[in-house]
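[Automated response] Your request has been received and processed.

Submitted sequence:
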Amino acid sequence: MSDERQYYNPYHLIEEVAVLLRERGLEPSLTEGHLGDAAAGAGQLLRALAVTPAMDVVETLDRTPKPYR
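Generated structure:
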Protein backbone atom coordinates (compact mmCIF):
# COMPACT_ATOMS: atom_id res chain seq x y z
CA MET A 1 0.00 0.00 0.00
CA SER A 2 1.24 3.47 -0.84
CA ASP A 3 2.17 5.98 1.85
CA GLU A 4 0.64 8.72 -0.29
CA ARG A 5 -2.77 9.92 0.89
CA GLN A 6 -5.76 9.28 -1.31
CA TYR A 7 -8.63 11.74 -1.58
CA TYR A 8 -12.16 11.43 -2.96
CA ASN A 9 -15.20 13.67 -3.02
CA PRO A 10 -18.00 12.10 -0.91
CA TYR A 11 -20.65 13.85 -3.02
CA HIS A 12 -19.28 12.14 -6.13
CA LEU A 13 -19.53 8.82 -4.29
CA ILE A 14 -23.19 9.51 -3.47
CA GLU A 15 -23.94 10.28 -7.13
CA GLU A 16 -22.05 7.20 -8.34
CA VAL A 17 -23.85 4.91 -5.89
CA ALA A 18 -27.21 6.31 -7.04
CA VAL A 19 -26.25 5.54 -10.66
CA LEU A 20 -25.17 2.02 -9.70
CA LEU A 21 -28.44 1.39 -7.88
CA ARG A 22 -30.44 2.62 -10.89
CA GLU A 23 -28.45 0.25 -13.12
CA ARG A 24 -29.48 -2.55 -10.75
CA GLY A 25 -33.16 -1.66 -11.17
CA LEU A 26 -33.65 0.32 -7.96
CA GLU A 27 -35.02 3.85 -7.67
CA PRO A 28 -32.87 5.67 -5.11
CA SER A 29 -34.05 9.06 -3.93
CA LEU A 30 -32.62 11.39 -1.37
CA THR A 31 -35.25 13.14 0.68
CA GLU A 32 -34.91 16.86 1.18
CA GLY A 33 -32.69 17.77 4.08
CA HIS A 34 -30.83 14.45 4.17
CA LEU A 35 -27.87 15.19 1.89
CA GLY A 36 -25.77 15.87 4.99
CA ASP A 37 -26.63 12.42 6.36
CA ALA A 38 -25.64 10.82 3.06
CA ALA A 39 -22.40 12.82 2.93
CA ALA A 40 -21.52 11.76 6.48
CA GLY A 41 -22.11 8.10 5.56
CA ALA A 42 -20.08 8.43 2.36
CA GLY A 43 -17.28 10.05 4.35
CA GLN A 44 -17.29 7.19 6.86
CA LEU A 45 -17.13 4.62 4.07
CA LEU A 46 -14.22 6.43 2.41
CA ARG A 47 -12.31 6.65 5.70
CA ALA A 48 -12.91 2.93 6.33
CA LEU A 49 -11.30 2.29 2.94
CA ALA A 50 -8.29 4.49 3.85
CA VAL A 51 -9.41 7.29 1.54
CA THR A 52 -9.69 10.84 2.85
CA PRO A 53 -13.02 12.50 2.03
CA ALA A 54 -12.28 15.87 0.42
CA MET A 55 -13.69 18.21 -2.18
CA ASP A 56 -11.62 20.00 -4.80
CA VAL A 57 -11.19 23.63 -3.73
CA VAL A 58 -12.10 25.07 -7.14
CA GLU A 59 -15.11 22.78 -7.41
CA THR A 60 -16.24 23.86 -3.96
CA LEU A 61 -16.00 27.55 -4.84
CA ASP A 62 -17.74 27.07 -8.20
CA ARG A 63 -20.40 24.78 -6.78
CA THR A 64 -23.97 25.92 -7.02
CA PRO A 65 -26.60 23.95 -5.13
CA LYS A 66 -28.48 21.58 -7.38
CA PRO A 67 -31.27 19.20 -6.50
CA TYR A 68 -30.39 15.54 -6.14
CA ARG A 69 -31.93 13.37 -8.86
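Summary generated for your ticket: The mean pLDDT is 86. The longest strand covers residues 7-8.
If you did not submit this request, please reply to this message.
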